[in-house]
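Example: Oxygen-dependent coproporphyrinogen-III oxidase.
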Amino acid sequence: MDVNAVKDYLLGLQQSIVAEMSQRDGGAFARDEWQRPEGGGGLTCILEGGDVLERAGVGFSHVKGASLPPSASVHRPEIAGRPWEALGVSLVFHPRNPYAPTVHMNVRCFVAGDVWWFGGGMDLTPYYGFEEDCVHFHATLRDALNPHDPALYPRFKKACDAYFFLKHRREPRGIGGTFFDDFTLGGFDHAFDVMRATGNAFLPAYGPILARRVATPYGERERAFQAYRRGRYVEFNLVWDRGTLFGLQSGGRTESILMSMPPNVSWRYNWVPEPGSPEARLYSDFLVGRDWV
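Written out as structure tokens, the predicted fold is:
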């Protein structure tokens, strides 16, 4: 079990993504290094008000604690109260253009004594749907995982659809992607390879989609719908997301945990899109748990 190798990979991943996205936006990410009083720390890279990325955060953390919080041990009661450490890179990009989708990725490693596991995945949240974008995103994730085990993509895709689902709204957050947690299959080295395959797939999966949509003309109507749908993003993160709950319950750094929140959000009471509109098509054609590849 080489935790230092995991840390080196994650720091390199953060650096490569920040460099690429800074070039695409033209703005510089601010760097915020921080320490956690109980142990460990991290580096949060944040860009706000960019030409392409209205808000973008790429965070690395390596934190330690003396006793596991309830959210981490609910599925493994035998490790409750153990000392622990967690390493990960988590990112969320909220583009300015409503035709460019929001994207989230997280890759992580958790260790508690002799117990360890990997987790990760990424998902796409469009406001205006394009089938070619959805197919490209899912095909890239499938192709990244297939060399390690062709059974992984269908398994992780199903888990993503189940996880990123707003139960109180009875609707998916977006068009899914992959999601895995408590992953130990094949031993440490194989599980680490699967996590790396996920992290390395991010730029090939998202970059071409952002490039296709970033210059699409839009107006106030599209921005208003984007803000409305961003409200769903906030609802999921604050109500259902286990990573957010773990971070807050474990005494994590609130600013870094909540960097995923979009900058502008709105809610409308009992609003429904006009039938036949592009906004209605998001619900009828994209937020339906489809098999894209």
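Residues 19 and 159 are 30 Å apart (CA to CA).
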